[in-house]
């Protein structure tokens, strides 16, 4: 799911040396965002409440919520607001998840139709207690969107399904235009950042997704600021290109609360620019890299550029 941060971004303190901005505890001014409040924002909030739906935008306290909701886009969070895993960076609550809501796919698709979305982004909490990890819910949402909002391209940001490739096949059979699965961090930091995940398993998922639907677009994302080096980031890019990933997102990790992993460093806008260039040189079709970038940030623009024909008729 999306990397998460709190909205209450403390501004960088004027008068400090630039080097100060790169240490934990100080929020540089390139991370400032406006408090969300616009007619579009309020409208989406009302729609989500009215349909009993969750978004990762809210659950993860994404800093881009004012911008994205203000222009009528949002990322739906399927299968509840409680995750069966406990990643050290993530704001979404963890615990025993409730029963799956089998009617949710219809309500999500209905809301997408009401919003008039041309590109829909769907993600979920981890549901490791489910035999298929909840893959059938993703598949059903895709079917319902095809029915209620034909022509809408679909991006699914899925968990690793614990390496159950038949679950992945269920999703890929519905031909989402973009299959996204986040790598989240460099392999050295997995134990600390994603203790219940495995780097090779995430790479294998992306490889299998491309193998199952070679014409489909695959996408992944990482956060920086957790202690990784530039060399490690570039190595991850090489690993991702080796499994033919098309799109990559890179953004700054921000600590959602004092109970979450600390920020080791703020990467600068210049470093994000270099990462973009390095990625494009490695053959990604697009690299979205910037301090506030999250998995679904500008996802509609990427779909516009990279997905030519939505798979509406099968
Ligand atoms: S970047 Fe993604 S999660 Fe954040 S507000 Fe935009 S759509 Fe929602």
Task: Give an account of the 3D structure.
The chain is α/β, with parallel strands linked by helices. The chain has helices at 39-50, 56-59, 65-70, 104-115, 135-148, 165-172, 190-193, 199-212, 230-242, 269-281, 299-306, and strands at 54-55, 75-78, 82-83, 93-94, 119-124, 153-157, 178-180, 217-224, 247-252, 286-289. It contains eleven helices and ten strands. The strands form two sheets. The protein has an eight-stranded mixed β-sheet with strand order 1-2-5-6-7-8-9-10, sandwiched between helices. A two-stranded parallel sheet has the order 3-4. Helix 5 links the parallel strand 5 and strand 6 (153-157). Helix 4 (104-115) packs parallel to helix 5, helix 5 (135-148) packs parallel to helix 6 and helix 6 crosses helix 8. It is globular. The structure holds iron/sulfur cluster. Iron/sulfur cluster (SF4) is lined by residues 2, 56-57, 62, 64-65, 68, 73-75, 294, 296-297.
The class by helix and strand makeup works out as: alpha/beta
Order of helices and strands: HEHHEEEHEHEHEHHEHEHEH
Low-confidence stretches: 1-24
How much of the sequence lies in strands comes to: 5-15%
**Overall structural domain count:** 1
Q: Please tell me the overall pLDDT.
A: 90
Largest sheet: 8 strands, mixed
CATH superfamily membership? Aldolase class I
Helix fraction by DSSP (H/I, runs of at least 4): 25-40%
CATH topology: TIM Barrel
Tally of alpha and pi helices: 11
CATH architecture: Alpha-Beta Barrel
- What hetero molecules are in the model? iron/sulfur cluster
